[in-house]
Each structure stands twice: as structure tokens, then as C-alpha cells.
Design a protein that fits this description.
Elements lengths: L8 E6 L2 E7 L22 H7 L23 E2 L17 E13 L8 E12 L3 E7 L4 E7 L2 E2 L1 E5 L2 E5 L9 E10 L13 E5 L4 E5 L18 E10 L3 E4 L2 E7 L4 E12 L6 E4 L1 E9 L2 E8 L3 H7 L3 H12 L6 E6 L7 E2 L4 E4 L12 H9 L6 E3 L6 H17 L8 H6 L19 H18 L1 H15 L2 E3 L1 H12 L4 H9 L11
Helix pairs in contact: 3-4, 4-5, 5-7, 7-8, 7-10, 8-9
Amino acid sequence: MAPILGAMALLRDIGSLVVVALALAGCSGGAEVRLEAAPAVAPTPTAALGEALAPPLAVVPEARSESAVAAEPTGVVGRDGVGDSLYAQLGNSGYDVTHYDLDIHFSPDDLDGPGTIVARATIAAETTDDLVSFNLDLSGLDVSAVSVDGRAATFDRSGSELTIVPAEPMPSATEFVTVVDYAGAPAPVSVEETSPVNGWTPSDGGVFVAGEPTGASGWFPVNDHPSDRASYTITVTAPDDLVVASNGILVSQDAHEDGTTTWRYDAAAPMASYLVTLAIDDLIFVEQGTFDGVLLRHAFARELAEAARADTERLPEVLEYYTSVFGPFPFDVYGHLVVDRPFSAALETQTLTVFGSDTVAGTGMLTNIVVHELAHQWFGDAVGLADWGDLWLNEGFATYAELLWFEHDGMFTRDQIGPLIVGNGFPLAPPGRPDPTDLFSPSIYFRGALTLHAIRLTVGDEAFFDILRGWTAAFGGATATTDDFIELAEAASGQTLRPIIEAWLYDDVMPELPPAG
């Protein structure tokens, strides 16, 4: 993630060169993340849901009456949190989601606002415990019916927790499908002191989704933690004068006689919930050809399209360099979603990065924000977080990737990178111990990047780039931890690196960089 904060958009003179060195992502998260339900809206009648979504809800059978007199169920109650080291209440335990199929019917407001939705989420998962109940995260919206494997399930709402009790307990390693019918006016998830936007957000004429560390639960029921990644199918029906953009490949676009169009996207690669995006707005698609079979396709707010097009002209050049040092691009499509709203941020939503209008320069100069977010497709998206406490694996890597690009592009040399970062003057606390009240602090980016630079100076360029390529090869499509990285770095380099890496990540006093070799 790379918000634009004025004090952190830095110009540095490197010899006779003036470079845009770094734009820091600065968000903050609450010490106790409190997911508060958005204001309630009037429940949508079941009949309206039946009209919008086929098959009608009436076909879902009621739970068999004998279940009420069955033997005492055995199993555990799924916990309403995965035990994250920073935000223990995020996500849920007891199951692993494999696929979300979201079917959303969107109606815009007459005035600027979030609009309303009538939706069905079909969630394929597998139990990891013997469960008598489990939770999904859903903030604010009204649930009218829930079924598990085609049988009606009971459910209860408490804040952002949707607790579901299936008709029968489910043993561990059971594959099951949950269907949730819901409706209402989506809203940003209320999380104390977090990112500038957090979920479903009105733009100038439409809506878009961007939110880290949370936000997904504001528009669909979800296990809202990055450790539980899944594939997605996102189907949205909206008025004909609006365009829908989302993650993955657009597989169909069907117009209807009632003045609506249905758009369907398939995102086959595993994806964390905070990386799911959606925009329903006055957009135009701009294709930029392909790179090694990767479709480059952007979605720009119409009024910003010309400027946004200029900012993406050099994208294939960066892809060529990044694939040489990081490995193959991990997805089959990539593009920029530029929305007509300033929100002081960009977010690396998988395959389709969201940029606010205030990130658009329109000069044709490749900005550090563009290369930072592109690098996240490897570091943060393909290789995902198992715990928010390891955020430096996302932001330190993406920040160092910026510097690698500008070094490659001739703006400065390897040996100028250390002085460049240290000269910023930001406080560089240990990035391996993030403050949950200031998750996106400067140290996560800058001292995280310096950690990688220290490794590079220690092992040399050849071994360092072997480490980066090995990291994406070993953990692409999965989640990983700092310990995973240390073990891989030592194996790839043949050197003992744990003391160096841990000093950079955890020592209160920042170490000195090794001498340049």
C-alpha cells in the first residue's frame, strides 16, 4: 500500500539527478480492532431476494425436525478470531475457505452515496476442526437466509460476527458449502485509527472498494484475515450506464432488457480478502497489450483516463526488469484501477491496483507509486501474509523494489541506497515489531527496505537475487512468515543470516549497514 502524504513525497538530488525517491504508505490500525456494524437499514424482504437471485430461497429445505432430538452434538464452536499477533479478533478459526462466489445486484443512489445491494454469497470451505458452529465476518448488512450444504442453518448476528449453526455438526476435513443471502447499503468498516479508506467507498458517480487491513466484511460475508486465501468469482449486475471492474479476468458481459448488464470476473489465484476490489462507476477500459502472456488491462475513471494512460506507458519496461529479478509475473492479468476520488492512497489489490485521483500525475514520468504497487503483486499478493505482524515482508520488499527499479533505470547506484534511506530522517523503529496503533509506520517501509539492503551487501548481488527469486518460487500462491524468509535466505546463500536479519528487524537501536563490497 502506498498512500501519498505530502511530507513523505520526497525529492532527492543524486549527483545531477532529481528523483522521486519514496512515497511512504502511512496508515494506522487500532490497538484493539473494533469492527462495528454500520447503521442498520430496513431488511430486504425475502421475496425481493427471490426475484433477484435464482434459484428462489424457497428451494432451500428446512433443517430436519429430527435434528432437534438428535444425540448431543460433538465438536467445537469455531472461534471469532484467528489469533493474529496484532489483531487477535480478525478472521475466524475452524475452517479454510477455498472459493467465494459472489452474486451482487447493485442499485445506485439518486445522489452520491454507497447505493444498495441484493446479494448472495456461495462459500466453499473445508473444516479444520470438528465444528458445531462457525463464524463469518459481515458488517452492517441484513441477512435473510443461510444454508449449509443445501439445508437451512440457524444464524445469529453480534456486531460484525455472523455465527452459523449448521443442521448437523461437521467433522474435521469435511468439505461444505455455505450460502448467505443478504442485502442493504454497504459501508466502510469502522476500524479505529486505520487506513484512509476501508472497504466500500463512494466515488464521484459510483463506488469502489479498497481497504487494508480490513474492509471486505463491509460488502460480503468473509473470513477476513490474510491467512485464509481463496479464489473468487465476482458477478455484478448494475445499470447499463455503469461499468464494473474487479479482480481477475472478465469472462462475460451480458446486457438485459431491463436496462442492466451483468459482469462476471474470475480470479483463480488464491487471494487475501483485503486484496479483493470492485468498482462500479463511469469507467473506460484501456488495454496495453500483453507481456509474456499477461494481459495488461486498465480501468480508468473517464475524466482521468488521458492522464492515467500517460502514467502507465512504461509499465512493460518495469515488468521486464522485475521478472528478471523476482521471477515470472504471478498472475494472468494486471492493470490499474483509477477512481475519481482522492484518498491519499494506492492499494495493491490483486491483479488490479486501486489508485486514488490524487496519485495521477499525467506527466508520463514513472512514479515510485506505480512501481511500488506493481512489486506488491509478487510481495504481498502472490506471497501472502500469515500474520499482520510480518507486514515488513510486504512493505519493506515493495519499497526496496522501488529502489531497485530506479537503480536499474540509472537514477542512483547500489551504494547510494543506504544513505538515501537513512537521510530521509524518519524514525526507524524495529519493523519486525509493528505497533498495532500505527501499522503503516515509516519503519515498516524504510527499515524494512534497509534489512534487505543489509542482506544484499552481506551476500552479494548474485546470491541476493537468488534469494528473491527463491522466495517467490517457494511461497508464491501461499502465505509465509519472517522465519520462512530467514530459513530460505540462509539456504539460498549458504550463509548464516539470522543474527543480521533479526538485528535489523527487532533491535531497538538500528544496526550499521555492512560495508559496500
